Amino acid sequence: MIKRIQLHREVEEALKRNRVVALIGPRQCGKTTLARQILPPDSPNYFDLENPVSLTRLDEPMTALQEMRGTIVIDEIQRRPDLFPTLRVLADRDPLPARFLILGSASPAMLRQSSESLAGRITIIQMSGFNLLEVGIEKQNRHWMRGGFPLSFLADTDQASLEWRKDFVSTFLERDVPQFGIKIPSASLFRFWNVLAHYHGQIWNAAEAARTLNINESTARRYLDLLQDLFMVRQLQPWYANLGKRQVKSPKVYFRDAGLLHYLLGIKTESELHLHPRLGASWEGYVIEEVIRSTRPEEVYFWATHSGAELDLLLIKDTQRIGVECKRIDAPKVTPSMRTAMIDLKLNKLIVVYPGSQQYVLADEIKVLPLLNIATTPKDLIDL
To answer: Which of 84, 253, 345, 377 is such that its CA lies 20 to 30 A from the CA of 166?
Structure first.
C-alpha cells in the first residue's frame, strides 16, 4: 500500500480547524482507504452508506448521531443528501462533541446541499488518484501510462491494469451515474466519452461533437458538465484580457486521469503510447494535472488568440501570474508565442515543463524545469 502522508495530514488538520470536512473525488481514488486510516471501519462512528446496515442505522439520523463523540465518518454521502440539514444542526452545537468527515464522489455543484446547508462550517478537500510524488518519480512512465487510480497503478501487469480500467468505465456508467438520479443511457454516455477522448487537449466544440453523435448541442454540453462534476474531465477555462486581440473563449477539455484517456484511445502499452498521434496531448494533460495538484493555485486558465499565440496553463498563485508550457521535447527553446504571452498577460514568470532531467534558463523570467522537479519540489515553480 502506498501511504498518502501529506493528504492524511491535511485531512487531520482540517478536522481540528473545522466542524465538517468533506473529502471529495472520483470513485475508487482512495477516499475510503484514507478515511479508514483515520477511523477504523468497525468503529460505531463509521457509516458506509453502501452498507445496508449503515443505512438502517441512519433511518433516524438525529437520534443515531447526536450522542456520538469524537470523529464521525460518513462515506458515500451522495446517497443521502437529506443528511446535510441534520449535519448543520449537529455542527452548530456548543460545546461541540463531534466532528464529521464526509466522503463523496461528486463535485460540490452536484452536492449542492452541502454548500448551502453547511456554509461557513465545512472545509472541502478535493482528492484524486495517486500523484507522481506519492508513487515515486522513478515510476513516472508507469504512472503516466496507467493513471493514478490505485488499483490501476498497482496492478501486476499492464493487461491487468487495462482490464481494471475497462471494468471501472463500465461500472461508472451502469451503476455510479444512475445513483445520482441521472437518466442517461450508458451506451450514449460511453459513445460521448469515446468522442471526448479525441478532444483531449483541444478547444471544446459542442456543435461538432453534437453532429458526430447525432445529438443536440445542449445535450453535448450536459454530458460534458456531468463528466466534469464526477471528476472524469477538466474543462480548463480561457483567460480573457483586454488586449485588442481576438481571443479564444471556449474551454479546453482534458481527461483528469491519463490511464482512462489511454484506455478510451485504445492505447494498451507504453510502446503504443509513444507511437500514438495523441502522445503530445496526453503528455500535456498529464503535466497540467500534476502541476495543478502540486502547486494548488487559486485560479487556473489557458490562453489563446485566433492569431495563434497561446499558453497551456495560466496559474494565479499568491498574486503572481505564472505561465506554464508543456513540451515533450529534449531541449525546449523560447518561442514567439512565449514572448507574446509574457508581454500580453504580464506574467511574473513562465515555466516550460519537459521530461528531461536538467533545469536551465531560457530568457529573463523564462525557465525550463523537469516534471520531476515540480512533483518533488513544487516551490521550484512558484519561488523562482
So the answer is: 253
pLDDT at 79: 87
Record the pTM.
Answer: 0.93
Q: What pLDDT, on the 0 to 100 scale, is given for residue 238? A: 95
Determine which helix (DSSP H) or strand (DSSP E) holds 79, and give its type and residue range.
none
Environment class of 307 (CB within 10 Å of its CB; exposed 0-12, middle 13-18, buried 19+) = exposed
Q: How confident is the model over 206-215, as pLDDT tens digits?
A: 999 999 999 9
- Cα separation of 191 and 245, whole Å? 36
Do 286 and 366 have their domain in common?
A: yes
How do beta strands 252-255 and 202-203 pair? antiparallel
Q: Which residue range(s) make up the domain with 152?
A: 132-382
Q: What total of structural domains would you count in the chain?
A: 2
Regions of the chain with pLDDT less than 70: 110, 113-115, 243-244, 378-384
CATH of the domain at 11: 3.40.50.300
pLDDT of residue 286: 98
Residue 98, classed as helix, strand or coil, is strand
What is the rounded CA–CA span in Å between residue 69 and residue 375? 38
Whether residue 334 is found in the same domain as residue 352: yes
Residue (of 64, 37, 38) closest to 49 by Cα position: 64
pLDDT of residue 241: 74
Single out the residue of 107, 70, 115 nearest to residue 88, CA to CA: 115
List the one residue out of 317, 327, 330 whose CA is nearest residue 379. Answer: 317
pLDDT at 306: 87
User: For residue 46, how many other CB atoms are within 10 A of its CB?
Assistant: 20
Q: Which of 126, 144, 160 is the last residue of a domain?
A: 126
